[in-house]
Please model this.
Amino acid sequence: MENHVRGIIPAVITPFLENGSINFEEYKTLLQFLVKAGVNAVFISGNAGEFYSLTFDEKARLIKEAQKSIGNTVPIIFGSGAVTTEETVALTKMAESEGADVITVITPYLIKPTEDELFAHFSAVCGATKLPVLLYNNPAITSVPISSALVKRLLCFDNLVGIKDSSGDFALTLDFMHLSKELQVFAGRDGLILATLLHGGAGAVSSIASACPELAVSIYRHFINNEMEKAVEAQHCLAKLRQCFNLGTFPSVVKEVLSMRGFSPGLPRKPVGPLPEEKRRILESTLRDIHVL
Model:
């Protein structure tokens, strides 16, 4: 991923078979579907990909199979986040050796490091690889926020290229944008894709784009073509679908959308279960309303 890459990056789900193992054939099919839809990169082993449930070896194979499936057609972004610095660095080095193009690092979770401890953590990751590093701010999940002051300190690393901001705090997103013209700021909330672009952001890392890439891609394409009415309409459709995420435990809704579209994503790993039938009907109705089905 060169520093000028912008646009829509789907947070790719990890499909599973009934026995709980990864369905690598379906995984490769999904990646090809996303590339054909016009995405600008793919993000694997993130929250949507259930990284917290995957083994080290499974994560390594996700990179290998992505290389087999899509090669160099778009950059492969790998989530190397973990609780400890040691594991995060090990995953980062593995990802570089296996051919990933970019590293994304979420904050540690379950624990609450100080800002100095976070600086040391991210410094170790940036220092362990020559790959571009994208920070991932998702305090609703981790309870550990990334501040603009911390990002400013980390700009001393040439390979710290950007941040995915899933905080939902758009004032903070703007603060990140104002730190440096070189810093790529990506919307992590699907409802803020167009707003982020309008204020100079690089694009979005979107979980909905994993199932409905055409919706997110259309926002970006209409934006760059200065077709603002169409961009607003596409953002509205995507926002309606995003509201359905509350129907189930993440990423069950994303997988259900893919299933309704004819893919075989399987269920999330337990304890997350399938959507109840009444909620499936609500989701299906929404997909029909926005003309996805």
About this structure: The mean pLDDT is 97.
